[in-house]
């Protein structure tokens, strides 16, 4: 719930890397082990880099995961400009120049992974002003025209023309590439079949009346377990699962000479939305927690070309990487007010002394001696901090058939009431009831 830095590291990606390679022409080829695309990414019908690997015959898409040679991967082996990126699908595709996917036999500097590697290099900042912008949107289907996903992708490249007087050689003029994506998604995983959840009328009733007195026994029952087909509705989009993000990338090029240059790059992911909790889908989507990400990836690279002939290049590079990832998960209503979580109201326990005939151990006198303090009743004052959660205990008190139901805290819990910090029971052990703040289970 509180902002927790989950990963801060400083690494040297390549202290010294020497390479010799034969120059290749513009290609887009694939085989069982690899996929290579150069300078033609814009011609493919994809808006994010993550899906480019599907052009390889060994890759199959399963919902939110990719199957590579039959092995499911959550997709964490993504490298862009030497940086390992966690939000690869949000990187602006308009800034990418080359893309490679290695199923096996990956370059030695990448290491080894059964899930393979996706490696990309961004475009070099241009010595001319260039601007590119695209907008994509998706619909939920023929039964609805409600927009589900919208993405704005842009890229801008330009030299620092105002420095021309300082640099006699125009080839050494510094330049910049600025790219980014703006994403707005109501449901990251819409369903063609449809998602089922209680309608607004039923949700309001269950929120106000979560419990039902058990007339054939003791305690209470869960009202949500008595819903019928008429209490539900279906939609291709789930409620309260929206995700929005802004993902800028900036790259500076500082040529030192015609054979040496310094490159500085930074990718920032700023994402906010609601976490999809499967157990909340039917009754409790309003309590999906808020999710916030702040990921920062930077690199500084020095590149020196030793041999630069028509068909042969030999160069070395030194690169420093720095990443800082921050993740927050919290209630949409309680935010950072930690003591508000799970608070229902004030419980006041009344005590009553009990007596029995006995002999005082000090004086030796006999008579009625106090032998205990027992609970004689508990008063409950509901709070408006979590009103739907307070309704459980409030309704429990209003429907209690006799005083034993509210005699002590143990009886309240035993018969279905809630105390501060308690969570409502699930519906049939599968779905969360209204007002239950849970991430899992």
Can you describe what's shown?
This protein is mainly beta and 441 residues long. It folds into three domains: 1-23 and 125-194 and 236-341, no CATH class; 24-122, TonB-dependent receptor, plug domain (Ferric Hydroxamate Uptake Protein, Chain A, domain 1), CATH 2.170.130.10; 342-414, no CATH class. It has three helices and 23 strands. The strands form six sheets. The chain has an eight-stranded antiparallel sheet, with no helix packed on it. Strands 2-3-9-10-7-8 form a six-stranded mixed sheet, with no helix packed on it. It is elongated, with a radius of gyration of 31 Å. Residues 1-28 have low confidence and may be disordered.
Map the helices and strands.
Layout (H helix, E strand, L loop, with lengths): L3 E18 L6 E3 L3 E5 L20 E4 L2 E4 L2 E3 L4 E3 L2 E2 L11 E7 L14 E6 L7 E12 L2 E16 L15 E11 L9 E4 L1 H9 L2 E3 L6 E3 L9 E4 L7 E13 L4 E15 L15 E19 L4 E18 L14 E15 L6 E17 L4 H13 L9 H6 L27
Parallel strand pairs: 7-10
Antiparallel strand pairs: 1-21, 2-3, 3-9, 4-5, 5-6, 7-8, 9-10, 11-12, 12-13, 13-18, 14-17, 15-16, 18-19, 19-20, 20-21, 22-23
């Amino acid at each position: 719930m509180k902002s927790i830095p989950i990963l801060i590291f400083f690494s040297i990606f390549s202290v010294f890397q020497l390479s010799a390679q034969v120059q290749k022409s513009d290609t887009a080829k694939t085989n069982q082990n690899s996929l290579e695309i150069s300078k033609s990414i814009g011609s493919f019908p994809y808006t994010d880099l993550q899906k480019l690997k599907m052009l390889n015959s060994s890759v199959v898409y399963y919902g939110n995961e990719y199957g590579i040679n039959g092995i499911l991967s959550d997709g964490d082996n993504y490298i862009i400009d030497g940086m390992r990126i966690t939000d690869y699908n949000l990187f602006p595709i308009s800034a990418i120049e080359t893309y490679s996917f290695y199923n096996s036999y990956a370059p030695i500097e990448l290491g080894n992974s059964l899930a393979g590697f996706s490696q990309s290099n961004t475009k070099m900042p241009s010595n001319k002003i260039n601007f590119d912008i695209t907008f994509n949107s998706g619909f939920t289907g023929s039964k609805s025209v409600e927009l589900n996903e919208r993405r704005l992708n842009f890229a801008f490249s330009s030299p620092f023309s105002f420095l021309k007087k300082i640099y006699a050689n125009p080839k050494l003029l510094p330049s910049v590439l600025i790219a980014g994506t703006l994403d707005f998604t109501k449901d990251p995983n819409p369903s063609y079949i449809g998602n089922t959840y209680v309608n607004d009328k039923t949700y309001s009733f269950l929120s106000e009346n979560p419990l039902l007195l058990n007339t054939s026994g003791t305690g209470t029952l869960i009202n949500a377990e008595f819903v019928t087909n008429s209490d539900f509705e279906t939609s291709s989009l789930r409620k309260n699962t929206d995700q929005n993000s802004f993902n800028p990338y900036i790259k500076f090029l500082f040529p030192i000479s015609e054979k040496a240059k310094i490159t500085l790059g930074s990718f920032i992911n700023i994402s906010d939305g609601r976490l999809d909790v499967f157990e909340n889908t039917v009754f409790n989507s309003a309590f999906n927690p808020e999710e916030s990400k702040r990921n920062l990836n930077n690199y500084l690279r020095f590149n020196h070309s030793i041999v630069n002939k028509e068909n042969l290049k030999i160069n070395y590079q030194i690169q420093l990487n720095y990443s800082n990832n921050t993740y927050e998960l919290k209630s949409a209503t309680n935010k950072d007010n930690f003591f508000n979580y799970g608070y229902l109201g004030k419980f006041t326990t009344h005590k009553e002394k009990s007596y029995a005939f006995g002999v005082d151990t000090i004086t030796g006198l006999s008579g009625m001696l106090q032998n205990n303090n027992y609970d004689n009743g508990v008063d409950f004052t509901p709070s408006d901090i979590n009103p739907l959660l307070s309704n459980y205990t409030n309704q429990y008190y209003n429907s209690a058939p006799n005083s034993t139901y509210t005699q002590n805290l143990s009886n309240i819990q035993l018969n279905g009431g809630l105390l501060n910090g308690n969570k409502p029971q699930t519906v049939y052990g599968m779905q969360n009831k209204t007002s239950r703040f849970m991430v899992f289970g």
